[in-house]
Amino acid sequence: MDKNQIMIFIAMALYLLAVLIIGLAKSKRANQSSDDYFIGGRSLSPLVAAMSAEASDMSGWLLMGLPGVAYWCGLADVFWTALGLGIGTYLNWLIVSKRLRRYSIVAGNSVTLPAFFSNRYHEKNKTLLSLSSVFILIFFAVYVGSCFVTGGKLFGTLFGLDYHLMMLIAAAFVILYTLLGGFLAESVSDLMQGIVMVIALVVVLIFGVHAAGGVSALFANAREIPGFLEFFHLASPVTNETGAQVVEAGAPLFGEPSKYGFLTVLSTLSWGLGYFGMPQVLLRFMAIRKTSELGRSRRIAIVWCVISMAAAIMIGLIGRVLYPVQENLLTSSGAENVFVEAAQALFHPLVAGIFMSGILAAAMSSSDSYLLIAASAVSKNIYHGILKKNATDKQVMVISRLTLLIIAAFGVVIAWDPNSNIFKVVSFAWAGFGATFGPLVLFSLFWKRTTKAGAVAGLLSGAGMVFFYKLVVRKLAAGTMFDIYELLPAFLFSCLAILVVSLLTKQPDSSVLAEFDAAKNNTDEEIDATLLV
Q1: The whole model's pTM is what?
Q2: Residue pLDDT, tens place only, 2-51
Q3: Please, what is the end-to-end C-alpha distance for the chain in angstroms?
Q4: Measured distance CA(395)–CA(269) in Å, rounded
Q5: Superfamily of domain 3-213+265-422
Q6: For residues 467 and 463, what is the distance between their CA atoms, to the nearest angstrom?
Q7: Which residues fall within 8 angstroms of residue 391, CB to CB, at 6 or more apart?
Q8: Residues whose CB is less than 8 angstroms from the CB of residue 408 and which lie 6 or more positions away in sequence, other chains included
Q9: In the predicted model, is pLDDT for residue 320 greater than 70?
Q10: Domain ranges of the chain
């Protein structure tokens, strides 16, 4: 490594040390009980709840995936995606957070999403518990893989070292501090990481605009690329047989822009629907210390979300103007390094190292959440809830840590390909969670007539349609109006399944209906008081 790389390494090492200290500081509290390890004893403040929800949600795609798509094909795709996510963030905090926090207490003081579904419908054979736990394992393994890809790409690009080795080191660090501190440690560290992420994005944006000659010069240069700054067209880089953009006379080549039609816009906006089914976000609603504080969390979350996504998109556009023929940015996968290139070019290595920690922060804040929730799905729901109901807290914790290691191993396998596209990997997992859990969360919270059979149908149809539409329909419909993001059709199909099957099956028992009314009508103080009983 040269002098600049050493300084960047020092800055990032100090950041990692700070995160590890947080894990150690919270390890004693985390290991008091499995409830403390998985949900922090429902003790999150509004600031920590908001920042940890958004930081764990955004992951490495915020600083690498989103700018990469903006750099590669322009404004349309990222704009409609970010708009959908912004709307989804607001609505999720507004209409879901309070009811879920209340209902999770009423329904047997549930501390995981699968446990809430199971308790909500008073199931005895644990079908919902098992199915939802399995789907969490499947989709979080994909998510964890995307985070490890981020770490591998970051270190490989910065230090010119082997991608696989760097990816394994990043994975090992995340596993270590998640094992140590549990939910409380990752939530508190997510607060710090969320602050690092937004500062890094905003500062790089400001200096990038200045380097591009100001806002007017930036947009004037970007408009020269066909379709690059349009809302209903995508820029079309001309690529060779290896997928790299062709460069002639020192300039990248672009073809005729492709249309971005109404149905595509609608499906891209549907990214916002995914929020209703994101376990890592929903868990923060359940873990806040007081229901009344969720309004403050909502305001913090939406401001952070809007600023971060807007800055990330702009950095991608700026990168296309400043580094149009940068060799390692000339593929759709390589374009995801545009934030790294900008930080290195615009700042002193020590400062760049701190900003680079923003990418690491994004990946870590997500992967620790994914690992923890996946571990809880097995240890708390399947092992303790089904296989060994008399298991001690110590046994649950042991199974949890073993599961965490196994899921991390699957994540490593998924991340092994250095050409993996972070945005595409995340989009599939996002659709999986959104369509599998989102409709069921909404129906469970707001429609009393929902039955267990309807809930099972919703889970299976949502998950099944994501795979079917992604792997079959989109391939057959490539280039047509039906080549849309799989989340929208899968979400609607799941809603239809829940509605139809619930109406065709027997109304829920009176005890289930009584709990629904209690979650809806009892005061926050009455519900919170049950935690003390």
Answers
A1: 0.83
A2: 787 788 888 878 877 776 676 566 555 555 544 545 455 566 788 888 88
A3: 59
A4: 44
A5: Sodium/glucose cotransporter (1.20.1730.10)
A6: 7
A7: 383, 384, 399
A8: 144, 171, 174, 175, 371
A9: yes
A10: 3-213+265-422
